[in-house]
Amino acid sequence: MSYTIKQYDMQDDETRRKVFWLLKRLTSYTLWKKKRDAWEIFAKAFEDAVKTWPKDQPEQMEADSLIRIYDIVNLYSKGLPELAKGNRHVWREGQALNEAMRSYAAVSSVFYRDPNYWERGMQLAPYPPKVETLNKLMLASEYQGDQAPQEVPNRVAYWKNPGNLINPEAYKYEFHELPYPIFPELLPKVPDGTDTFIQSDQIVPVDGIWEPVKIEQNKVLGIIPVGKKTISNNGCFNYFVRETKAPKFRGSYNKITSRYDNIATHWRLLWKDTRYKDGIIPDESEYFLEPKPPADHISPDHIA
Questions:
Q1: Domain architecture of the chain: domains with CATH
Q2: Which residue has the higher pLDDT, 180 or 154?
Q3: Which of 67, 70, 150, 180 has a CA positioned 20 to 30 A from the CA of residue 6?
């Protein structure tokens, strides 16, 4: 993925509202059910391709992939009922929906290994039409930012800047494009935040959306704290699952150590996620709004 880096101000009210709404969308039961439903359609189509495509056809799909593809179906079937009850541990390492995402990455990296189109897990050229049809079915299960609730690998936050979430260019890849979400006309206000604070590497006490913050206080002679502490935003909101470790931000690359110098921060709980705890899935249709027709569009019902 390559696009012009655009800076977003996390002090800006519209930016904050969009990021908050997107994180709730990406962690909703409805989105994950749509992921599961799309994957089942793809699995059946892939199996049909393996079983019915003529052997003399140049483009062939690998039968060995079917085992992992249907394993993902089973992982979704195991994880979704838990999510429907508000049990979000399914996104932790080794749990059903986390494993489904890991296996998806493995399947997509070896989806079609014809050397004219693939090398070392990378697509090199547009796929042949029949292969691309299957590829689109696979991609229908993917949403930009759907790693948001997953337990953070390497303890580095997924989102330092909201560009990968709200910049339309981030949804465009070399050989495909993921659908950009349609925001409601009135986005909900972002909560003011709670009195719950943690630091990087500490255990997350509750599921929810957290804001990185700077906590500062004046000091006499640079030693003795005086006056009230000031709290200000320190980057993009992130979603954390309880009992995981709060991450750091990735810093600059250190040529001496050949590693990135990760940066610790404080995190403040903005919103505690209690959805589905009562066993009820609310109306979440606002996360999948249809585009409005052009202003000059005339409905067939109005044609004489």
A1: 28-147 (1.20.1270), 197-276 (no CATH)
A2: 180
A3: 150
Report the length, in residues, of the chain: 304
For residue 45, which amino acid is it?
A: A
CB 12 within 8 A of CB 190: no
Tokens 């494993």 belong to residue: 99
Q: Cβ atoms within 10 A of the Cβ of 154, count?
A: 9
Which pLDDT value is given to residue 4? 54
Question: CA distances (Å), 239 to each of 20, 33, 78, 259, 273, in order?
Answer: 9, 19, 22, 25, 10
Q: Nearest-CA neighbor of 199 among 156, 149, 246?
A: 246
- Pairwise CA distance, residues 4 & 7, whole Å: 10
Q: Give the CB-side neighbour count of residue 228, counting CA atoms within 13 A.
A: 2
Render pLDDT for 90-113 as a digit per residue (tens, 0 to 9).
Answer: 999 999 999 999 999 999 999 999
Cα dihedral sign, 111-114-117-118: positive
Q: What pLDDT score does 293 carry?
A: 77
Nearest to 80 by CA among 97, 103, 104: 97
Residue 283 burial (CB count, 10 A):
7
Token code pair at residue 186 = 């009135």
3-state secondary structure the chain: CCCCCCCCCCCCHHHHHHHHHHHHHHCCHHHHHHHHHHHHHHHHHHHHHHHHCCCCCCCCCCCCHHHHHHHHHHHHHHHHHHHCCCCHHHHCCCCHHHHHHHHHHHHHHCCCCCCCCEECCEECCCCCHHHHHHHHHHHCCCCCCCCCCCCCHHHECCCCCCHHHHCHHHHECCCCECCCCCCCCCCCCCCCCCCCEEECCCECCCCEEEEEEEEEEEEECCCEEEEEEEEEECCCCEEECCCCECCEECCCEECCCCEECCECCEEEEEEECCCCCCCCCCCCHHHHCCCCCCCCCCCHHHCC
